[in-house]
Amino acid sequence: MELAYSPMSKCILSPFPCFTHRPPLALFSRVSISPARYANAPRRLWKMCSASSSDTLVEGRKSLEVASKKEDEYEDLKSWMHENGLPPCKVVIKDRPSHNAKHLPIHYVTASQDLQAGDIAFSVPDSLVVTLERVLGNETIAELLTTNKLSELACLALYLMYEKKQGKKSFWYPYIRELDRQRARGQLAVESPLLWSDAELDYLTGSPTKAEVLERAEGIKREYNELDTVWFMAGSLFQQYPYDIPTEAFPFEIFKQAFVAVQSCVVHLQKVSLARRFALVPLGPPLLSYCSNCKAMLGAVNGAVQLVVDRSYRAGDPIVVWCGPQPNSKLLINYGFVDEENSYDRLVVEAALNTEDPQYQDKRLAAQRNGKLSVQTFQVCVGKEREAVLEMLPYLRLGYVSDPSEMQTVLSSQGPICPMSPCMERAVLDQLSDYFKARLACYPTTLSEDEALLSDADLDPKKRVATQLVKLEKKILNACLETTVKFINQLPDHSISPCPAPFAPTLK
């Protein structure tokens, strides 16, 4: 490799896309509720039952099991929907056993007949869809979405919890009973890590997902602490339930379970008003399975939410929908599963210029001129690890510039160039190599050990999805490390010692 002419020998800070992906809780606009907005809210309340730590909304496991034995006394979900406006559709609900014999089977939607791409599987009328428009009334909620009080998920969860206190008198009884049955479980009958024990979260040791789970849990706790304020501001709720203060009526664990249940099935509708963009759709998730390589999405059309399938189905096949371009970490946190064929999987690498560097301000300016930040996030997408490494190198090289005259050359050049000596290039590549090795060392198992675990048919389902996740993360990191090592081996003398760099950028 000729450093004088190779792209690796130049500090070219060309712009590149930066996909900032916050935890889903941060993606939702937050609302507080003013009295007038609840004027049209339904006066349906759901009866509160005792709850165990693994309940979904607020119904206890024993009460749910007893209720299931009397299920024939009540309408099933689909019959209830047909009686309340659901037109004829091309799906049926079936069930599969849960991995835990103490839990009820998982329900899922299948094709009731052969389907072709473009067929409408079902069309659920808006009267059977729960949105903030229904919860808050028909008036605009733009003001509510800017007051930084409560996310849409928390608002919908609180609504369903109050609804549940009405018991079978509630219009939504069949639907919320179905949510209780599903218990926020994903396709593998696994609950979101938000409901795992500390010991189970240790399955994710080494993965940044563990910190994301803990951060999300803290966010849910903060929202719980806002419930009373929101409730007092909601005049209609205050008038209807003057003694039902949310944090007294619903312990935090129950609210968290309800929040996770809503999170696992909420649908983000496109091209609708803010009041309708987050929707709970019977026959939608979690009865529908998510699939990363599917393009079918639930959409709002003419007063209904409908599903147009994107592929052929035989009668009895489970119906799948697209969950958006989410990495596996988000799929696990939100829905309790990991997709090994997920082409949207990715990891984040964060690089930061050294603030103690005497030339920090000049380097920050150079970075800004080329679309980068002093703290820059790089997305490492699966299958594109080499491209990600090539994106990182110019930024890292900038941090290694030490000669003030070279820094002035970078600042004055339209295409910033900083000549790199072989030893300096080696220092940059070694830092990157050490970083990937350090991340891999954080995992308590190796890739081969992960494969051995996954070959065990009796492996605990939570441990299985966690092992799938960390295995895929390691594959991405290994690919990055291999790419970096190849670049080291292409140096004119790859055995040369790296130059010291007291103000090298930091990597996280």
From TrEMBL:
UniProt keyword Nucleotide-binding present: no
Entry keyword set: Methyltransferase, S-adenosyl-L-methionine, Transferase
InterPro entries (alphabetical): Rubisco_LSMT_subst-bd, Rubisco_LSMT_subst-bd_sf, SET_dom_sf, SETD3_SETD6_MTase
GO biological process, one term: methylation
Gene Ontology MF terms: protein-lysine N-methyltransferase activity
Domain Rubisco LSMT substrate-binding: 355-477
GO cellular component assignments: chloroplast stroma
Record PANTHER family: RUBISCO METHYLTRANSFERASE FAMILY PROTEIN, UNCHARACTERIZED PUTATIVE METHYLTRANSFERASE
UniProt-recorded name of the protein: Rubisco LSMT substrate-binding domain-containing protein
Organism classification: Eukaryota, Viridiplantae, Streptophyta, Embryophyta, Tracheophyta
